[in-house]
Amino acid sequence: MLNFDLASPLRIGPVEVRNRVVLAPMSGVTDMPFRQLAWRHGAGLVVTEMVASRELVNSTAESWARLESAGFEPHMVQLAGREAHWMAEAAKIAADHGADIIDINMGCPAKKVIGGYSGSALMRDPDHALSLIEATVKAVSVPVTLKMRLGWDENSINAPEIAHRAEEAGVQLITIHGRTRMQFYEGRADWDAIRAVRDAIAVPLVANGDVETVEDAHAMLRRSGADAVMIGRGCQGRPWHAGVLAGYAAPDAWEIPDIAAEHYRMMLAFYGEAVAVRHARKHLGWYLDRFAPDVAAQEKAAIMTAREPEEVTARFYDALMAAASNTQTREAA
């Protein structure tokens, strides 16, 4: 039996997290506007998009934009890399610029990441991975955490071993996505397999993969033995959903168009019009797929391809409002 609920606080070293539902770091998704909305609606902890360590040290604009705090605490920065030197230097920069927690990415399955021997590719060489972990921990005084998968493939399930060694090196929390790298996001995450990591470590454990509902979250905790859950794709098109799992109220059908339109305006302010109009399209699509699935294909295409922010906002908002009205009519019937 669990002796806590998802709404209870969690400690990562000296840092207290307000509840046990974490928004996953997702490149191209969990930018500052998304994290701000997720936090406002109750997520216990949000994590930056993956920041490439060497690029941060070399001061690329994208890495610095990803490092930026969303204006609340704790500020958790995820770093990726393949060399201990760059990871340590990047960790120092992140901590000096307000990071309360540094997370090491050893879970990303993307080809462009593993092609550079970063992300989940590090799980193929645990000794090398540990050199990065040790260097990062030694470089900063803030807590260092680690996110990884079960292993590279089904024949190399080494997350328990790496987690144990990471804890010995000073890592203060482990997150496990219940798939191997070779599974990408196919099939179902294996929540039961995460329990072997629970048995190998004493620090807090976060379980990740395929959690959508409160019932899923509790089942994941029960089967994995984890202390908290992380949700990623389940929040696409509903940045408030991590908070819902933690016990916050979900917006009603009439509130959703306002939140979605605000999200779009926040992206315009953050990126500037030229970039935001393109970058926001995937978010618009997720909102429409979730909450206005019956919008005419022609109208959806117009929303997704329009270049004037005022036109996008008006069409997008109207489509969501029409869907809300249809939902209310069906519920009243």
TrEMBL record:
Function: Catalyzes the synthesis of 5,6-dihydrouridine (D), a modified base found in the D-loop of most tRNAs, via the reduction of the C5-C6 double bond in target uridines.
Enzyme Commission code(s) on record: 1.3.1.-
Single GO molecular function: tRNA binding
Catalytic activity, reaction form: a 5,6-dihydrouridine in tRNA + NAD(+) = a uridine in tRNA + NADH + H(+); a 5,6-dihydrouridine in tRNA + NADP(+) = a uridine in tRNA + NADPH + H(+)
Binding positions (FMN): 78, 147, 177, 232-233
PROSITE patterns: UPF0034
Gene name for this UniProt entry: nifR
Positions of the catalytic residues: 108
Cofactor: FMN
The keyword RNA-binding is annotated on this UniProt entry: yes
UniProt keyword terms in alphabetical order: Flavoprotein, FMN, NADP, Nucleotide-binding, Oxidoreductase, RNA-binding, tRNA processing, tRNA-binding
Keyword tRNA-binding appears in the UniProt entry: yes
Record-annotated DUS-like FMN-binding domain positions: 23-310
EC class: oxidoreductase
Stated family: Belongs to the dus family.
NCBIfam families: nifR3_yhdG
Protein name per its UniProtKB record: tRNA-dihydrouridine synthase
